Amino acid sequence: MGWIQQLDTTAFHFINRDLSNPLFDRVMPWLSWNRFFIPALILVLGYLFWHGKARTRIFVIVLLITIAIADGLVANPLKQLFARPRPFVSETGVHLLVGEGRSYAMPSSHAVNWAAGATVVLIYGGTRYFLFIATIGIFVGFSRIYNGVHYPTDVLAGYLIGALSALATVNIIDVTWRYAGKRLFPTWYQILPSLKNVVVHANQFPNKVDPTLENLQWLRLGYLLIGITLLFRLWYIAKPIIELSFDEAYQWIWSRHLALSYYSKPPMIALVQRLGTLLWGDTELGVRFFAPVLAAIVSMIILKFSHSLGKTRLGVLLLLLALTTPMLAVGSVIMTVDPLNVTFWTAAMLIGWRAIQPDGKTLHWILVGICMGLGFLSKYTTLLQLLSWIAIFAFNKEARVHLRRAGPWLALLTLAASTLPVLVWNAQNNWITIHHLADRGDLTTSIHFGIKYTLDFIFTVCGVLNPIYFIGIWWAIVAFLVESRCRANPLLHFLFWMSIPVWAFYLLLSFNTRILPNWIAPAIIPSMCLAALYWEPKLLNKVPKYALRAGLILGTIVVIFMHDTTLLTRWCGITLPPGKDPSRRLRGWKAIAQIVNEKRLDLETTAGKPAYIICDSYGLTGVVTFYIPEARQRVTTNPLVYCLRRNRPSNQFYFWPHYDYTQTQRDHDAIFVSLVNRRELRNMNEDLHPQSPPELTQQFEYVKYRGTIPIYHKGSLVHKIRLWECHSLK
């Protein structure tokens, strides 16, 4: 085999060095990668999917699946298996024209992807399109050798592996459809018996479709969509792509200190995170495990409810809308109180619809009370659902019949009982939660009215909901108010009142203070259901149909990049400014924890006595604790990481005696770390003498500024931290 390697090396140097010329030096790096390729590909595939017929749309879906499998499940594992160094690592005199890749050489992922794509094009589009794609693929493969990042055999192996992967994937998809489609989707299978040789048998369209069978097929498709999405999200949170957010890490510390309630939130989030970490350990997967699970539960509830109405197809559409709504996508992988709040609000709403029917039973109302109680124990916003029920009973004569029965009152009693843990804890802690909520709503000072925060609230929510969906939702809400036909629909009436109290409350509050977009989370599902029911009969019209497609495509693109914003740089050459990248809140914490802990150990060595860490906020305290193994182990006994102690309670740490370092760490030294705010990230003129918090100078004999440290993730600035040495706690 030595002669093959020698031939490979000789061919590499011939292409890379001997063929070197100024023209190729400009063209080949562009062929290998350019910022226009992925956007152009997205536009082309989007156009084909938008305007194409069945065969074209199946081609787009199969192409994306094939490339994902060929690259992620075949090429990357083979790179790790072969572990072949890149030419610029093992050879001398390499003419390197592009960046040094961090992965191994064999096989070339570029070659794999182009060969896989060309093979799918050959199967679905014929030789004419195949020759065009294959020619480009050959030039791309040549450019990888010329640019100095692959040997010729890396590229040849990539072509072979890509083609075989594509053939296998397409045939597996086709065989799976032939086997499962015939059994699970018989009507659709009759029309489309193959996903490889796509021929729509128009003459096989049944003259009369059995509604029960049609709904059952859509139900099975919904189950399949929910299952695939759940598996993907569990895989995603198990991978080291993003780190914990401030709230997740902070509430993870709560989960290690279970209590009846907490400073700012009820106890449910701590209980759920504790259960997740018992299953999967103190890991990102453990902390976040129930976020995708709860999203799957909500999806299942919506699907089953739609099925019970005989509108299962609309239920599947709602699942697609949820998948392409940025805020809901975030809540499906980030475990805060919002996934719990949305889950229990939705469950109480849809069980409540069953309860207000003429044959609604007491059990239904008790379940409504349980769901609302669990919702209250998740987030206090649930109390707004009481306003929904008051409005429903006030404006729905048929529903008021139930007020003469025990059901609604038992539900109210159940909800009231669920408030006891929170009331008991607050009674023991000077009702601090009420003061916190008043401060959060800026209600402790004189109330003022302005539109600055209102406009910010509207535009922010428009963005995080998907602008097209936002317009569709509010069009439907306004239509409900002005069209008597809509108001006469009992379900539209019910959904309107299940959403509007949340919208109205925070819209009014926005005239006084800034509102975070996630606060309206429980209103999203009922609003989407209302909009879907309103727009369903209009989707045959051109404008609503195209608007829906545009919303799905836009939402899909945004959600993909939200899962990993570094894809913008890798695929499109776009690097978001540090203050504009939303994922910076989920990156850089491991690096910060490592740096701060190293500084602490250095201080211990220099001073000859124990040192600990103090952070400027509860969130930074949480992530630094989570990402230092020793701190994680000591979180319930003798903490290594503390939150800056202030004179009045501002977070949960104030209420735990072992987190009062002014009492437990006398005469010891500390490293104080503060996070530079977002507006200062791009400020290149560093403040050489920043002021430390006054509490530090009061608590320690001597405080010394140690500098500002930038934190990078894959070459992009995500944070800056400032460090102080604090000597001899008074």
Verbal overview:
It is built from 35 helices and 5 strands. The protein folds into 3 domains: 2-184, Vanadium-containing Chloroperoxidase, domain 2; 212-563, no CATH class; 585-729, no CATH class. The chain has 730 residues and is mainly α. The chain has a 5-stranded mixed β-sheet. Helix content is 64%, strand content 6%. It is flat, with a radius of gyration of 29 Å.
Count all strands and give the number.
5
Strand order of the largest sheet: 2-1-3-5-4
User: How far apart are the termini?
Assistant: 72 Å
The total count of helices amounts to 35
Mean pLDDT: 88
Could you estimate the helical fraction of the residues in percent? Answer: 55-70%
Radius of gyration: 29 Å
Q: Can you summarize the main beta sheet?
A: 5 strands, mixed
Oligomer: single chain
User: How many structural units, i.e. domains?
Assistant: 3
Strand content: 5-15%
Summarize the structure.
The protein is mainly alpha-helical and 730 residues long. The protein has three domains: 2-184, Vanadium-containing Chloroperoxidase, domain 2; 212-563, no CATH class; 585-729, no CATH class. It is built from 35 helices and five strands.
Topology:
Blueprint lengths: L1 H17 L3 H11 L4 H15 L2 H29 L4 H4 L18 H17 L1 H20 L5 H33 L1 H6 L19 H28 L7 H10 L12 H13 L3 H5 L1 H19 L3 H12 L2 H6 L5 H19 L6 H15 L7 H12 L1 H4 L6 H12 L1 H9 L3 H9 L11 H14 L1 H16 L1 H4 L2 H20 L11 H15 L6 H22 L2 H7 L16 H19 L3 E5 L2 H9 L2 H5 L7 E3 L17 H4 L4 E7 L18 H6 E14 L2 E14 L1
Can you give keywords for this protein?
single chain, 730 residues, mainly alpha, Vanadium-containing Chloroperoxidase, domain 2, 3 domains, five-stranded mixed sheet, 5 strands
